[in-house]
Design brief:
The complex is a heterodimer of chains A (58) and B (640). Chain A is mainly alpha-helical and 58 residues long. Chain A is built from 3 helices and 1 strand, in the order αβαα. The chains are: A mainly alpha (58), B mainly beta (640). Chains A and B meet through α1, β1 and α2 of A and α2, β35, β36, β37 and β39 of B.
Chain lengths: 58, 640
């Protein structure tokens, strides 16, 4: 019975993960670009932001 | 001359031949055997007095078998010869005469009757010398039967009428056989020069033979014990069961034969151990109540190492049962006729009750301790050949001597069950190792576990197929990214829309490079929130010749997944890097494509792995359990 419950949870978990497109082994690096960067000269093209300017967090 | 009355030629007392097949009548007055030869009566000689036995039947008793009524007209006592050549271990055979003039034999065996009648056959019967205990033979009227006992019987005494001319001091060779469904066969080989005769019949209850009034009852027990005195020490003895033949003296530990009076000493025992389950303990096994009446510690030596186990003889309304205990593991065992065991290949396996039993171990077992009372005459100093076959939780066990084989069938029980049933204080003997017939608790779970996992796997695959079918994989961006342009180190795409709920997005990148390396830092940026997910691609292709062999490495295409991307307006930022050689060929652009609604393979693989994990672990634990079980067998190496 316990295993049946575990199986049901695995099936439900699989369905949820697959439906929401959640990557379990993410290779992408996530970041939030501040609005100031987006509005700054060069915007997304800014070399400074992508390579050294933004470290994330405090 | 049926029913003819005459007078005894020896003493003149009235003599009667009631049975149509009766040849000899024993004078009840002077014990002379008188042969009927036509109209004449011939004196054969004196017949010894009957030996006192526990037989319940009596001359003149009436019954019926198969709707035909019969009367017991004769009583024959036979016995095995002991080492001094004297008849010993006497048993009874009763001559029954049917109303239609036919006749047969009735014998009693541990609470049941064995009925046989003479079968006339032209078919050749097997030679006595070709037989051995345990062998299966085909006989007319009974089919395939197994030889349970191959022995010689000595004439001991008789009473009433007999269907043959007894020979005092004669030895009769016989083979007792049993079939699968209660059939019973005796091949009577008589003396050396006699032709074999076939007697076939079956096992009956007393009620089935119309002899219910003679059936053993609880009253056949001696509630206070049959009072005897030990012939060795003179101490008091108490025998509880009417059928007891061997008993140990609690005072001097002598093993006594109490089947005849006076009791005689069979052996002087030295063991002083106490049985973990005490004699006299009462408990229930299955639907029947039993009392422990005997205990013996048996021992074997295997590859120089001694092993021992305990056996308890139980007695109850349904007769005798056994309990066996080894390393804290218990078996409940009951005797079965050898005919129930088929396809026996010694050291390999056997079938019984439609189940295949695999050979576990064979050994020569002796007695280390004996206490209590037993229904056979124990030869304490002898060893018997034992063989165990298992089909957990069941066991099939044989004990054999050259002339006899006894089979028992058993089922595994735990010490806790025994202790609870017999209301014993404390704990049962400590459990160690894996027993031959111990059920594999892991294999018992396997069927249900695999089926549950199978259903779950089907559900997972169904969900995957459904999602693959209903989810539209859509290309939301295709762009070309200039490579090696110092004036355009970064390329930004036009904004594009990703619709629908959160989903996985797949980014493809490709460049037809040759002898060069192109790196692409790609970021998917939500233009509304600034959320960014960055992935890197390395596109390269190098090739050449080395030591006469062509080689190549790298890939001109790459693929990356970004998960859980919500709907919104997006930009793609691509920043290429280039590493080239003089001989390189680098295209002007790399192709980058973004597809929404990508199917993720990893969750599917993970779900399959999780679902199969426990069943596979169970398989491994099952195999490990079986390895431990068979490590103690004759097949530890895994050979059949």
């Amino acid at each position: 019975m316990k295993f049946a419950i575990l199986c049901a949870m695995i099936v439900a978990g699989f369905a949820a993960v697959e439906m929401r497109g959640i990557d379990l082994l993410p290779a992408a690096t996530h970041a939030t670009i501040p609005a100031s960067v987006r509005s700054s000269p060069g915007g997304y093209r800014s070399y400074h932001f992508w390579h050294s300017g933004f470290q994330g967090g405090k | 001359m049926t029913g003819q009355a005459g007078t005894c030629p020896s003493c003149g007392a009235p003599l009667r031949f009631g049975g149509a097949q009766s040849v000899v009548s024993v004078c009840s007055h002077c014990r002379s055997a008188v042969l009927r030869a036509g109209a004449n009566l011939e004196l054969l000689g004196k017949i010894p007095d009957l030996v006192a036995t526990d037989s319940r039947l009596a001359l003149g008793a009436n019954g019926s078998i198969g709707g035909k009524s019969f009367t017991i007209v004769g009583h024959l006592q036979l016995g095995h010869r002991n080492e001094r050549g004297e008849p010993d271990a006497t048993w009874d055979e009763w001559h029954v005469s049917f109303s239609d003039g036919s006749w047969g034999w009735l014998a009693e065996a541990q609470g049941h009757l064995l009925f046989t009648r003479h079968i006339s056959t032209q078919a050749p019967l097997p030679r006595f010398a070709s037989l051995h205990a345990g062998k299966r033979i085909e006989v007319p009227a009974a089919g395939s039967v197994a030889i349970d006992e191959l022995n010689e019987a000595a004439f001991v005494a008789a009473d009433g009428e007999l269907p043959f001319k007894p020979s005092l001091g004669a030895t009769y060779r016989f083979a007792d056989c049993t079939g699968d469904s209660g059939s019973f066969v005796t091949l009577d080989y008589g003396a050396e020069s006699d032709e074999p005769e076939l007697f076939a019949g079956r096992e009956l209850t007393y009620a089935e033979a119309g002899l219910g009034g003679f059936a053993p009852r609880a009253a056949d027990r001696h509630p206070e014990g049959r009072a005897l005195s030990c012939p060795n020490c003179g101490g008091p003895l108490s025998v509880k069961i009417a059928g007891t033949k061997s008993v140990t003296c609690p005072g001097c530990r002598a093993l006594l034969d109490v089947s005849q009076q006076p009791a005689k000493v069979l052996a002087h025992l030295h063991g002083r151990a106490s049985p973990p389950l005490p004699l006299g303990a009462k408990g229930r096994i299955g639907a029947n109540d039993f009392e422990v009446i005997g205990w013996m510690r048996r021992g074997v030596t295997i590859e120089g190492s001694p092993y021992s186990w305990d056996e308890y003889l139980l007695h109850g309304e349904v007769g005798y049962r056994w309990l066996s205990e080894s390393n804290g593991h218990w078996l409940s065992l009951w005797p079965i006729p050898g005919g129930k065991v088929s396809n026996l290949v010694e050291g390999v396996g056997a079938f019984c009750d439609g189940r295949r039993f695999r050979h576990f171990q064979s050994a020569e077992a002796g007695y280390q301790e004996i206490q209590g009372e037993f229904y056979w005459q124990i030869a304490a100093g002898t060893k018997v050949h034992t063989a165990d076959y298992v089909a957990p939780p069941f066991i099939l066990s044989s004990e054999s001597t050259p002339g006899e084989i006894n089979w028992s069938r058993g089922e595994y029980m735990t010490g806790v069950e025994i202790w609870k049933s017999f209301q014993q204080p404390g704990s049962p003997p400590l459990v160690t190792g894996v027993a031959p017939a111990q059920p594999n608790r892991y294999s018992a779970l396997q069927g249900k576990t695999w089926s549950t996992a199978g259903y779950a796997l089907i559900a997972v695959l169904a969900i995957a197929l459904l999602l693959a079918a209903v989810r539209t994989r859509k290309t939301v961006l295709q762009m070309e990214v200039p490579i090696g342009r110092p004036d355009q180190p970064v390329t930004l795409s036009q904004p594009f829309e990703i619709t629908g709920g959160p989903q996985a997005v797949e980014i493809h990148a490709g460049a037809a490079v040759d002898q060069a390396w192109v790196g692409l830092d790609v970021a998917l940026i939500n233009d509304d929130t600034g959320e960014s997910d960055a992935v890197g691609f390395e596109l390269s292709h190098y090739h050449g010749y080395e030591d006469g062999e062509a080689w190549s490495e790298g890939s001109r295409e790459g693929r990356a997944i970004i998960g859980h991307v919500p709907a919104g307006r997006y930009l793609l930022r691509v920043e290429p890097q280039l590493e080239r050689q003089p001989s390189s060929s680098v295209p002007r652009h790399a192709a980058v494509q973004v597809e929404a609604g990508a199917f993720l393979v990893e969750p599917l693989l993970l779900a399959i792995a999780l679902l199969a994990g426990w069943p596979i672990a169970l398989c491994l634990m099952t195999a490990s359990f079986e390895k431990l079980r068979w490590a103690e067998s004759d097949h530890a190496g895994g050979e059949e």
